[in-house]
Fold:
Amino acid sequence: MDETPAAKGAVLMKRRVECCNLCCKHHQAGNTCGTTLQIGASGKCQSFEKFLLYYFCLVFSALSNKNYIDAMELTEEMQIGLYCVMTAYHLGFTTMEWGTCRMYALKASENGTMLKMADICAMELDQEAMDRLSWEMDEGILMQKCVDSEHSVKQSQPFGWLSPTGIFTEAAFGEHDAAAQEIIRKKGLWNDFLDWRNERNGTSRDFLSEMAGYCLVHNPSGSGGYIVSAVKPLTKRQKDFLYGYFMEIGDRFKAEQYVDTEA
Structure:
């Protein structure tokens, strides 16, 4: 006797359905689904909900064959993934610029190498941190952190001169000497500079660095990135400014070079 559609449906429902999607919050041990399975007309599971591992996989996929994440890849979900990976493996990140391209890299220390997926997976996972991340996800805190970070991190900072008292004067690429001369004039040091130049045959930027204690934030290559050049030891106010300067663009490693509070 032929089976009725209802009978056929009953037979199908008795068949075991295995789900291997570890990124779904409904996935359970034994590859079973913890909720009612709904398959749409396209054949995709409509019961899927993102689990913590989903965000880890985004980062690992981006770093599977390279050791950086391009700014074009830095979606809202990728930001959450980076936060999760950094928290679970105690990593930091640094930024790089090349022309108009901006890239992000995960590192275990300031002088450490840029990490790929295999490098990170070989490191020890902090289970307590994972438990905290799971709680933050359940409470909706992860999404809020991403929104807060997106509004607080700048894409870039201007080049310029930084005084010993922490006053920053912007100076675009190629205009550092002109800006140095302007600062010298405003400080009433022009005659001192002329006397010094006659003796030393130096430039205005040399005078500002050697005699006035200024440091310059620049990049001689003009291809992006930031270099801090100083002749004299940085003052506490200069260090405090530079810490905030680099934290605002999310470069924690470079910022932490200026945590030392000694004057």
